[in-house]
Known about the structure:
By secondary structure, the protein is α+β, with helices and mostly antiparallel strands. Helix content is 28%, strand content 29%. It has one domain.
Amino acid sequence: MIKSKTSLFAIALLAAVAISASQARAATYNAGDLIMGFRATGGIGSSSNVLVDLGSAINFRDLGAANLINITSVGTDLDATFGITAGNSVAWYDRTDLSFGVVGVYSSASSGAVTSGDPVRTLYASQTRTAVGTVGSANSATPGSPTAISSTNQGTSAGNMISLASTFTNQAASGNNTAVAITGAGTNTWTSFTSGTTDFAAFNPGVEQTFGNGTWSGGTYGSVTNVEGAVDLYRILNTTSGASPSGTAHVGTYDATIVINQSGQISAVNAVPEPSTYALFGLGAAAIVFAARRRQLKA
């Protein structure tokens, strides 16, 4: 009888250890993944950051005409940290003091092999998209671009992004989602790299978009409905040597627009064609019609 009780105790202890280990599993991150960060400048959740792993930056760089719909859903985490369930009187997506952005880098090393077409210190960073056709602080009619940055600042920024990734991987995953971690707002956190005038030591204006500004108001962007915020993602080469696709060093190239809806679902879509793009399409069509008529006349 004693032996039986001992066996049952041992089984129960092992089960408890297994459950505890499952609950404390580390948040999933691989080198080169994009991290989306959320922070509040006051009120509920201002001492915490929500960090989300969106997967490899290469997937967004090579998106082409495709879309990545519902990469992951973080509505539960945002509700618990910044929303009504945390004691706030407004939903997280209506808060004008809550913002988010996206960054990523494979390595901060000054030299090394090209990885999937990205030379060392190739950065990925977001810029505000306030509405379709209105991008960044310049209020441009076409996708904007981060201000050109120096080689030194690009190296510093890469190091900061790696530090953020280390903070992320040292946290336990949130709930059943291995892609989400809740961190503090201290050293080497999203807040510490974005609360100054220059985000991640390189980007001014910064990498964030603020919720609750009334611009999106649950609108539709591409195939995603109830959108509450969006940022444009850019790839910034440190060197063009071995880069594929190529570009200009230290200047951003648009990759995709990352959106989040009221449910907390995160997706990546191509920018909706701007009026200038439609104009180019019109010129191309007119040229084709003109050429066809010329052939008919010659015939």
